[in-house]
Write a structure and sequence with these properties.
GO molecular function, one term: DNA binding
Oligomer: single chain
CATH architecture of the largest domain: 2-Layer Sandwich
Function: Absolutely required for transposition of IS1.
Shape: elongated
Strand content: 15-25%
CATH class of the largest domain: Alpha Beta
Distance between the termini: 56 Å
Number of domains: 3
Family: Belongs to the transposase 27 family.
Structural class: alpha/beta
Keywords: DNA recombination, Plasmid, Transposition
Organism: Deinococcus wulumuqiensis
Strand order of the largest sheet: 6-5-4-7-8
Amino acid sequence: MPECPACQSVQTVKNGKAKNGTQTYLCRECGRRFHPEAKPVAHSEATKEQILQAVHERMSLRGVQRVFGVHRNTVIRWNKKGASEVRQTVPVCLTPPEEVVVELDELWTFVGKKKQARWLWIALERSTRKVLAWVLGDRSEQTAFKLWDRLPLSPEQRLKGTFCTDLWRAYDEPLLGVKRLTRKRETNHVERLNCTLRQRLGRLVRKSLSFSKSDEMLEASLTLAFHRYNLSR
């Protein structure tokens, strides 16, 4: 029997046939199903970038598979890898403390089905239009505290800055003691960003078949989306 390409075990058995009629095998050690004569397909970095750009311009994974001929599982793997590489990148706010204006808002989405709601909390710095921090969770005060803790602001910037929100009560405790504005027009920029996200990411569209199947994939897609967004500012 052929050797497993994943763990190099020889404990393999026949396991059906591929679409073209050739024999496939299953490794009893690691569970890998493989074709002994399969050759890896190499994709250039330019192709990967083009495909990831298509995904972040509202193209579905199956649509990418049909147009580019790259399997959706490969695209998912690239997406997760790209997110892991930029996950540690934290934007730095260099705005003088007195001029810091941060707009905060929440955006609804779901994973799997609409009963499994997720809320995306976003903090946008008004002068640079950059996303300073974001967090996925419910719409509770605990998630608001997580967003507040992730803001890359110095103690002086937090004390002298201005924070603009809606009247949602979850902001009351986290923003206690800082300058807060709750007028509707004060959150125009972050609400416009919400529209941009729904336009570019199919998984955030309210009525669509392109929804997130897992929290991991939703977080990976948002990580790359915000990274690309901040680079364009």
